[in-house]
Amino acid sequence: RYEKYWLIFGLCTLVVFLTIVGVNAFSGGHQPPTGMMTLDPTKVDQTPPFDQPGLKKVDDNTYEANLIAMAFGYNPSKIEVPVGAKVIFNVTSKDVVHSFTIPGTNVNMMITPGHVNTSEFSFDKPGSYLVLCNEYCGSGHHMMQMTIEVK
Ligand code: CUA
Q1: How far is the CA of 10 from the centre of ligand 1 (A)?
Q2: If you take atom 1 of ligand 1, which residue's CA is the nearest one?
Q3: Residue 114 contacts by C-beta under 8 Å, 6 or more apart in sequence?
Q4: Does domain 37-150 fall into CATH 2.60.40.420?
Q5: pLDDT tens for residues 40-79?
Q6: For residue 34, what pLDDT is reported?
Q7: Distance 70 CA to ligand 1 centre (A)
Q8: How many Å apart are CA 15 and CA 97, to the nearest integer?
Q9: pLDDT for residue 27
Q10: Which residues of the chain have a pLDDT value below 50?
């Protein structure tokens, strides 16, 4: 009977649809952090490299930006990086879930306490880039930001 074929066709369509939704959900939005390290969120200030937050030169064209997110800002609130240099952002949170989002780039990380979330980017154009928090983290959420000066 035809109904049987339609039922099978319907089920196949459903499976394909769910697969596409699943793949999209995984590849887009909040990506799983690449360089995952765990740490005690209450001891961030004592845990290297976050005991000395800020920019660290790795080699001629590579820098590490070790940053702490907290209600309601980032430490440090401003860094300066050279044009074209590869910047590896290592970000952790001292309190609740925040995000580290640089509009206009592919840097968009969810920052969870207890983890270091890593992303890298090269700024090819000089200018002042704003970093924003995209996760609601409390009353000061809308004020949470930092600046990256690219020179
Ligand atoms: Cu931090 Cu919103």
Answers
A1: 43
A2: 98
A3: 38, 39, 40, 41, 92
A4: yes
A5: 999 999 999 999 999 999 999 999 999 999 999 999 999 9
A6: 43
A7: 8
A8: 33
A9: 56
A10: 28-34
Ligand 1 centroid – CA 68 distance (Å): 12
Pairing outcome for strands 98-101 and 108-111: antiparallel
In angstroms, the CA 80 to CA 138 distance is 28
| Residue with tokens 């090269």, as numbered in its chain | 122
Pocket of ligand 1 (CB under 6 A): 98, 133, 135-137, 141, 144
Cα angle for residues 50, 64, 34 (degrees, 5° grid): 85
> Ligand 1, closest atom to CA 111?
1
Tokens 């009353």 sit on residue: 139
Going from the C-alpha of 36 to that of each of 24, 51, 56, 92, the distances in angstroms are: 22, 18, 19, 10
Query: Please, are residues 150 and 81 in contact by the beta-carbon 8 Å criterion?
Result: yes
Q: What is the pTM of this model?
A: 0.76
Query: What is the C-alpha to C-alpha distance for residues 116 and 26, in angstroms, rounded to an integer?
Result: 20
The ranges assigned to domains in the chain are 1-30, 37-150
The CA distance from 88 to 58, in Å, is 10
